User: Fold this.
Amino acid sequence: MQVIQKIEELRQHITHLKDNSLSIGLVPTMGALHNGHISLIQKAKEENQKIIVSIFVNPKQFGKGEDFERYPRTLQTDIDICQKAGVDILFTPDADEIYHNDPIKILAPSKSGNILEGARRKGHFDGVLEIVLRLLNLTQANRAYFGKKDAQQLLIIQQMVRNLFLPVKIVGCPIIRDSKGLALSSRNRYLSKAGYEQALQIPLALETIGRKIMGGEYCCESLKQIGLESLRQIEVDYLAIVDHQLNDIKEIKKNESLILLVAKIEGVRLLDNLWI
Amino acid sequence: MQVIQKIEELRQHITHLKDNSLSIGLVPTMGALHNGHISLIQKAKEENQKIIVSIFVNPKQFGKGEDFERYPRTLQTDIDICQKAGVDILFTPDADEIYHNDPIKILAPSKSGNILEGARRKGHFDGVLEIVLRLLNLTQANRAYFGKKDAQQLLIIQQMVRNLFLPVKIVGCPIIRDSKGLALSSRNRYLSKAGYEQALQIPLALETIGRKIMGGEYCCESLKQIGLESLRQIEVDYLAIVDHQLNDIKEIKKNESLILLVAKIEGVRLLDNLWI
Assistant:
């Protein structure tokens, strides 16, 4: 595995891969890798000849007062994980090579980029698109892999690819959970043991909603009530039921609906969701 | 030559070209083709195996009250010109396929995008980048060709390519002039015979400035005075001397300086410039 920090060096590798018509799968991450990331790498390996993982804690997607400084950085462990997972190139750029002065700016869609997570984290999705677009261009990936846990992020990235006609396929991958059901996230390590126990109510609430839908309850208002009922003991930021364009819906439609749940435990915002 | 209107059809052709490792040269235009465009096509043919010309009168780069409606549309003549010039694909998309609802937005650099032409045409360069980025992505061109006449546009597009790490080379091509020296532009046809005669003062002024520089005059203030003196009879919008980052400069530096002149004749803004 090559660990590459400099953009110019990455470009030389990409030119070589492209000259040899090798397909490239990209897994963009902020490091602190866990089994969720590993599942993305595995999926990428099934579908591509060469795998690039990027690790970049992207300052532009953190707002003021958010956890940019505190965000876990575990590079040596991440290198070991990537090596073991069969990654070909691990790209760990510096911010001053990625972002220039007085640059072109990318703005997330004014509607879908400013609701839900976007309403609570101003400019967050602009920052996400800024980095993802650069990484897609730099790596010339044929496919790029994102977890469904960050559902709104996935949908907005897919929208960018459609809007700008980027020559890449965005692959959304299933949420990976720990043995007790909590969706894996690099931020879970912020939780105390008590906080972790509380957090388990999040997947339980989604499971309850999912069972109700299986049982024929399609009314979103009722489903939300059921969900909030089971979440009474924790601070729910939002529980929303939307379609894949992130519009609120009144009734569940199979393969078109998405239940988004964010709760705050010990100051940590935890995201989870259910794709119906 | 293939004339293609639909994006899906273009994509199939591009996939085929890429599968066969053929290099692609793109010449993006708004149609009303003249010898300036033909020189871009010729340059593209020297450097690439397949040539795509796009014709799209891009609504996003016209401001309110500008000449979007009036802009010359001469498709049949353009097709003949492209055919004769040996173009492989002529791409003439519809606006409703190029632009979607609630899209990702691209903003030109806040400094270089809002001075000179950008100060006079609010949002103009945002619109230019919106279309150029889409065309570069759609065609996956190895090289794209732009005239040096639109100097600020060329420099901002080059900046976008650097900022976003687009895998394309932007090639700036020399200004093509008519027999009397006027820089070719699709908008020249708006001029009356008298207006055309007046317009010839524009290249003459630049020629005078160029001769002074050859003679050793490097002081930009003096050069501007000399230029404006010779332009007394027409309405000068601006005469600026800048470096390639579009910063005003006090003294000419060889290979780093640019003299930008815009004059308004019969309501038509005419751009010309000199790369030193």
Summary: Residues 191-269 of chain A form a domain with the Pantoate--beta-alanine Ligase; Chain: A,domain 2 fold (CATH 3.30.1300.10). Chain A has a mean pLDDT of 97. Chain A has two domains: 2-173, 191-269. The beta strands of chain A are 2-4, 24-29, 50-55, 89-91, 105-107, 143-147, 169-173, 235-243, 257-265, 268-275.
